[in-house]
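Job type: complex structure
Entries:
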Amino acid sequence: MKKEKGIFIIFIVLCSVVSIGNPNFLSAANLQNTTRLIGIFGIFSIGSGIVIITRGIDLSVGSIFALEGVLLSMLLVSQKIAWPIAVMTVLLLTLAIGWCHGIMISKLKIQPFIITLCGLLVYRGLARFFSNDITMGFGYGEGFTALQRLATGNLFGVPSPFILLLVVGAAAWVFLHRSVYGRYLFAVGQNEEAAFFSGINVKRMLLAAYIISALLAGIAGILLAFYTNAIAPSSHGNFYELYGIAAAVLGGCSLRGGEGSIIGIVLGAAMLQVIQNLVNLLGIPSSLNFAVMGVVILTGVLADKFIRRNKY
Amino acid sequence: MARPILHMNKICKQFGDVSVLKDVDLTVYEGEVLALMGENGAGKSTLMKILCGVHPFTRGTIRLDEKEIFIASVRDAMRMGIAFIHQELNLVENLDIAGNIFLGREPVTRWGWPDKKRMSKETAGLLARVGLDARPETPVRQLSLASQQLVEIAKALSLRSRILIMDEPTSSLTMKETALLFDTVADLKSKGTSVIYISHRMNEIMQIADRVVVLKDGKNGGELKKEELNHASLVRLMVGRNIDRSIFASRCALPNASFNAESIRTHRYPHQPVSFSLNSGKITGIAGLVGSGRTELVESVCGIRSLIAGSVYLDGKAIRIKSPSDAIRQGIFLVPEDRKQHGIITGMSITENLSLPNLHAYSTMSLVRQAKESFAARAQVDNLDIRCASLQHLLKDLSGGNQQKVAIGKWLSRTARLMVFDEPTRGVDVGAKAEIYRIMRRLADEGAMVLVVSSDMEELMIISDRMLVMHEGRISGELLSDEFTEQRILSYAFGNG
Amino acid sequence: MKRLPFVIALLSLVSCNRSHRPTIAFVAGAATDFWTFAEAGCKKARAEIKEYDVVFRYTTDGATEEQKRIVDDLLANGLNGVIVAPLDPVNQGPFIDATSEKIPVMVTDSDIPNSKRLCYVGTSNVEAGHYAGKLIKEALPAGGKILLFVGKADAQNAKERIAGIEEELKGSGITIAGIRTDNIDRVRAKANVSDALVSHPDVNCFVGLWSYNGPAILNAVKESGKSGKVKIVCFDEEEETLRGVQNGEILGTVVQQPFEFGYQSTRLMAQYLSGDKKGLPANGQVIIPAQVIRKDMAADYLSKMAALRRK
């Protein structure tokens, strides 16, 4: 818990500040709203973090949301396909996207920034093309109310995306911090060549990382689609990959690779959502939304460095 | 009698509550070559870092020309005429020679632009002094390692350094280049520059040093003057005991395992088929000049690179090695030449490094059992006498010798059929060297085949049972231990015989 | 010598383009449903006027530079007349003037009265704001507080609508408690509403100014369980909005008939290019009246819109 200590402290401080400024922060309704968003953003931030640990990056996440959302709407509403099949199809698509990224990065050795940047452009374009730039909606969910309720409902008062985040987070924690493969991922991120010399199948680890990132984006994308109940293909998910990267970096993942923790990433994602909640609850003008986020992130990173240095 | 120019008196240095240097005295005379030796952890690099401005000392005094000085930074040290040439050279790859030499202090023309003509002229003069035949506009990345080193020396000279500290300068040089370096050092001496020479290579020190100062456990451990210098006295001074060739002699020969390479060709020398055999219980050395293809050969055998042609047999059965994991599965392990880039992961802990190739053995259902892993790591640390305060320490905090022990130790939890060492004792102190030789012998005694690539002929002659010599991609000669002489080895290395 | 075939290919490509009919272009604002209806209107117009080609373009993220780029590209490809929906009417005057020196320009959705445009085709956003204000007064007959939700508060149409609302609400005892912006991010739009429900429990009427704000408010209010307690007034005709009006969850929506924007402007431009200048209004404004859609008209309107979308 040493690494996460810094961001945990900052998170607690942030929450305290907000609840003092507006006690409604701790109201059931607000906690539900905020944890719902933390769930959605946390899930794909974990994927972003895993890729960053391998010294890579995934810029295509936001556009995956758009393409996936458009396809989901087409399958469920226009084609009226049974929702389990539609969900499976969409997740298989994101899996395939992740596989393509991974192959090009590991076998062809093209830089992840470039591959995923192309992904960002291509998937957004395809989303707009398939939908003709029309907003695709889910209406009242005729035929898939179960799915809608699953994606947007609560379990014992806790929003389902947050519960899903806990499940995904636990699995990711075991994978990254307790399994052999997590150790291999860190080794690859620290020093790809030395990992290769030690017999690690570097190509396979990189492939796995990008598949995980795209798949988690796929899961989060379904939740996101039902959150807004509509996909505006040109703007849906725009720049969301930056939320994932910011959460990962806040949570201790170094962009140089080889470092990071799941708990940190989830805390980072939580912080970003609390900040946005804060802007609304404390009556700060909406235009300063991003400015506040930037300042708090910077403060967080600096404070984290300070806290860690003091222990040395 | 030369006069002393530098006095370091009762220097103490503490990091936290660890005392690294205790009352160390060092005197440097004008125009002398002073060799600084000592086991890893003895404090040599800390002392030199204090001298060149990286660390401040906790207690003590430094006097330059009888005046007390305080070296607050590297710039300060450079200003006072103290320059440090690191083992890993500090040149900027994409600049040319002149650019590197004048980095940060480029002379400017009237208009404020860097005065290229003046830089060129002065650089040419400096290069002539150090004996480097290259144009000042040559980009340094085109130069050989040896030439780059000479550029560093030229840079130090341009800073009018009076004391030059060289850290393992010959570790990447061929014999010819080493000889050139020594000529340059002799020239520097004659012009009054003093050189502090840190090295573990005893024959070099015996060649070049006027005096030898030894540090042991952070304290002065003795001094020898040129006349008193010989192999035995040096070793005794440093380790406190003699290292005897006889303990490395092969004790038993288990004829069970065998390795055969038939007409294998590497990418580097695709037209040279190489064939050789190894038997268990024997240490085979591979000698040769830099560039003779030794590293490519062993890397191809161990799956790092692919072979263009040829076959490889283990115990008579043909095996295909397409990747390091294939080799590892067959029990073929490599301790690579480039320790920091390939042999270890500097950002990970000792435990993590030691367990990396064998992680599945410490896991159930792919989940790592940390107790089991730590236990195995502790066992290796004790086995190899790796000096560290805790197993959680990152590799980057360990000395070169201890890092190399980890690079070796990661394989020892598995059974090695063929263990390959590429330059195993580069940058390693004498005490650790002896231990590494012991490890090699033990492996051989337990039935493994051991292959050692080294540029240190003395080392190969000490530990090998037989030697293969390579020249430009092919095996030019083979010698048994009773035939080992430097002349024969060199002769094969140059392609004769 | 190797370059010759390439040059020939290039030339033939260029000359190939010249053989199309005279073209009219419609450059919309951000890619929202609102403009999809306008596109349907343009398509209908194209079917009626045979001599002209009609081209429709959206911008990706509502940036004014993109509108300029699109117009420049179209000009280079041969354009005879253009209708632009300026995203930044205050500052795009010079752009309109520069373009109108090459070809005739009409402006839609937000007017730039001092520019050299031929005319303006659209609603008066201020008038639309007044209609919304009337709906708000109906929602809060005893007075109260309202919150406004919009993409960008500095957009011209947003400012005009707010002005219209404020004028209408004078003396009514209803105050505007705040304006929340979401920068065209639907997730933000909904989150803003959820947060507002928590931080302003005393506000009983939420007003969405852009087309997607309506559905965002609707979803958030439904999720919080406050349907019926919080009244919703919004603009434009997204499908969810219309359904919300139909179900009574939204009091009413002010629609601008974007279909007419597209249809009428295209026809007018075609007329003008063919030499018939009579169609141009004297005061330079073709006002398409805004409409208020309430529960009783919702079903009708829904099917009309669905039909248009299918085209």
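Summary: Strands of chain A lie at 136-137, 154-155, 158-159, 230-231. Chain A has one domain: 2-310.
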